UniProtKB/TrEMBL annotation:
Native organism: Emiliania huxleyi (Coccolithophore)
Signal sequence interval, chain numbering: 1-18
Coiled-coil spans in chain: none
Disordered: annotated segments: 464-532
Domain annotation UDP-galactopyranose mutase C-terminal: ranges: 248-455
Sequence ranges of Basic and acidic residues compositional bias: 467-502
Identification of the protein by name: UDP-galactopyranose mutase C-terminal domain-containing protein
Keyword Signal listed: yes
GO molecular function annotations of the record: flavin adenine dinucleotide binding; UDP-galactopyranose mutase activity
Amino acid sequence: MLVPSIAALLSSVASTPAAGVVLADDRSPAGERRLPERRHLHERSMRGGGGTLFQRFFPRTPGEQPEVISSPLEHALPNVDDGGLGKAYTSVPEPPRKWDVCVVGAGLSGGVIAERYATLRKQSVLIVEKRRHIAGNCYDFLDDQTGLRLNLYGPHNFHTKLTNVWDYVKRFGRWAHYYHKKLAWSEGRFVPFPLNTETLNTIYDQHLMGANETAAFLAKIAEPCGPGGCSNSEQQSVASVGRAAYNQFYRGYTLKQWGVDPSQLDALVTGRISVRSDFDNRYFTDRYQSQPRDGYTRWMAGILSDPLIDLVLGVDWFDVQQRLAGRCGKLIFTGPIDHYFADSGLPKLTYRSLRFEKLAVLNIGEHGYYQPGTSVNYPEMAVPFTRSTEYKHYPGQPRSNHTVVVRETSGADGEPYYPVPNPRNHALYAKYKALADKEALKGVHFVGRLANYKYFNMDQAAISRQATRDRARPPEITTRDHPRAPESARAGDRQRAQDLRRPRPGQRARPAPGQEEEEGAQGGRTRRRAAFRLTSAENLILDARRNSRTESDFDVPRLKFAMFKMLQVLQNG
C-alpha cells in the first residue's frame, strides 16, 4: 500500500477504482485520489423492504453512526433551469418571429440536432420543451440536503466506440474518465455484473482462470436454443448462462423491471447484457467512457449556447402548435410518437416508468460510502426495488460529509422511460410508423428513443437519424468541423512521456528493473528492490495518466512533479 504522502501526490493520475475499492474524488480536474487508509468499516445486515440488505458504512470516527433519511427523489425547480444559459423563454416569442427548424424536446437528440442546424447550416432553431429544464432524462442538479449532484431521472453513463461522437461531445464541457462497474446483490453477497469469470467462480465455487476454461464452463451449463434461434428473453438468458444463473440474476430482475415474465419479452432485452469469459468487470467495453465533470445539464447548456437557438421551457408543444403554424420551416419531434398521433384512433403504446426513492445518509464522513460501488442490482423478488445508485462514487462530485443512495422501482404509470419490446407493441408501432412516413412529406420528422419506440444508448441518441428521410436531413456528426489533434501532436505527447524516463544531461541512466550497478566510492550500491519499485511506480503513473485524461490534456509538468516527489519519498524510505 502506498504511503500517505504518495497517495496525496498521485491525486492527478489515479485511475478509476474497481468496485469495492474506497476512493474519494478530490473535486479538481486532476482526477481521483486514493485514501491513505480505509476508514473504520462498519458492516451490518438490515431487515427492510422484504429482504435482507447489506449496508457498508465508512464513518468519520469509529462508533459514529450515520443518520439515514428516506424520501421520494424530488427537486424544487426554479421557474426554468437552462443550465446557466440565461436565455430561455417561458412562452413562445410572438410573431413575426419565424424559424427554419422547430424542435420538440430539449433532450439529447433534440439538443444535438438543434446545434447541428445552427452551427453547420447557420439556420435558426426554436426548441420547445414541456419540462422546465434542459437535458431531458440526463438532467442533473445539486441536492440541497447533501450538496451532491444527482440525476433526477436515474443515472446516465456515457460510452461510445465512435471517435467522431467522442470528439463531438467533449467540445462542450470537461469530461472525467470513468469506467462504470455494476454489482449484483444476491444470496447475501455482492458479485460483479454482467457475469464474468469472477462471478462464475463465486456462485459456482469454481477456480476458472482463463478465457478457454470460462468458455468451456459456460458451454457446459448453457441450454442452447433450437434451430430457429432464441425467441424470447428467457431462452436467450438460459442459452448464455444456464438455468441456475438465469433464475438467480435475470428472471427476478426482468420481472420487476418489465412487469411481465421474460418468456414474453424479445430476446434482445437480455441479449444486450454481455457475458464475459474473463475478469473484466466493466459494465461497458467501449473505447470512450466518461462523465461530464460539471454535470449533464451544464454540458447540454454548452450544446444549446449558439445564438441561433431559441429555447422555450415549461411549454407543451401541443398547447402552442396552432400559434406556431406557418412559423416553422421544418419540425423535429423527439417525444413519444403515440402522443403526436393521439387523435389517430390507434391504441397507445406501452412504456415502463420509474419511481425513485432518495436515501440520504448524513454525517457519514467525507470519505464515507453506503455501498461498495456506484450501482447495485437487486435481482431477488424479495427486494421491491431493482437498482440502487450511490452518486458519491461518480467523478466530479463536490466534497460532502454525506452521501446519497437512490433506489429505483419500475412501474407502468408515470413518465415514459422504456419502450416495452413485445409482439403487440411491434405491430402497433408499425402502424404509427406508417403515419410518420406520411408526415415526413409535410416536413415533420421523428427522432430519438421515444419517437422511434426503440431503446438507444446515449451515443446512439446523439447521432440518431431515423425517420429523417428528406433531402435536408440534419447534418451528420463528422470530424470535418472539429478535427482531432494532428497525429504529429499526439506523437509529440507520447514522445514527451517517453522523455520523462530518460536521464537528463549529466545524469547517469537508471538501471533496468531488477538490475544492480556499482556506483563507486561516492555512491555505494543501488538496491535491486528500489530500482524495481521506482520504475514500476513510473509506469503506473504514466499508464494511469493516459487512461484518466485525453491526449490533448496531457499535463507534463504536473506529471513530472508527481514523479519527482515519488522519487524523493522512495529514496528516503
